[in-house]
Design a protein that fits this description.
- This protein has helices spanning 24-27, 31-40, 73-77, 100-114, 143-148, and strands spanning 45-51, 54-62, 84-91, 117-122, 152-156, 164-171.
- The chain is an alpha+beta fold.
- The protein has one domain (47-171): Gcn5-related N-acetyltransferase (GNAT) (Aminopeptidase, 3-Layer(aba) Sandwich), CATH 3.40.630.30.
- The protein has a 6-stranded mixed β-sheet with strand order 1-2-3-4-6-5.
- 32% of the residues are buried.
Length: 173
């Protein structure tokens, strides 16, 4: 599926949040290689959604040590960093608007619960009311999906009001 979609998000391979600012130049243009390195080192996690044998979507998740990108916004919000982050969603273009992202987020939350739980932050895209917005650009999921699953808004991530920070406490199992 990643190949079908040109490395997803224009060749990002869902590495944006993995890259600390000091690593961005080193791995520029080599996201596929970087993602493979992370997966082989067990430093990249995702809840996958299948349609039969085919992966049709995922939700990337992990602790901040694995996903250190875009953490500077927390200092401006005066809130402690989370124990876990859900950073990227991707849904195959042929399966959008079918609930795949929600299923992936629910799966990530189950994994997090099985790993002890804790605070979980997500970064949904705030879609302006009444405006059309392509589902191909909703890499962070939607605010309504997070609200439906019990997350509460904390504020915006950085200066953009488009990317929200939402938090939920997941109990360990």
């Amino acid at each position: 599926m990643v190949e079908k979609h040109n490395g997803v998000w224009g060749g990002c391979w869902c590495t944006f949040f993995h890259l600390a600012p000091s690593e961005a130049k080193q791995w520029s243009g080599k996201h596929r290689e970087y993602k493979e390195k992370l997966v082989r080192a067990n430093r990249s996690h995702a809840a996958l959604v299948y349609d039969g044998p085919d992966v049709v979507g995922w939700c990337q998740f992990g602790p901040p040590v694995e996903l250190p990108g875009r953490m500077s916004g927390y200092g401006k919000m005066d809130v402690a960093p989370p124990d876990w982050r859900t950073t990227c969603f991707f849904v195959d273009r042929d399966h959008r608007r079918e609930g795949v992202a929600r299923a992936a987020l629910e799966g990530a939350l189950r994994f997090i619960g099985a790993k002890g739980g804790g605070t979980v932050d997500g970064y949904p895209i705030a879609i302006p009311r009444g405006k059309k917005y392509s589902s191909s650009f909703i890499w962070g999921g939607t605010e309504s999906m997070y609200l439906d699953l019990g997350f509460r808004p904390l504020g915006s991530l950085g200066t953009s009001k488009r990317v929200m920070v939402m938090r939920k406490v997941v109990r360990g199992r």
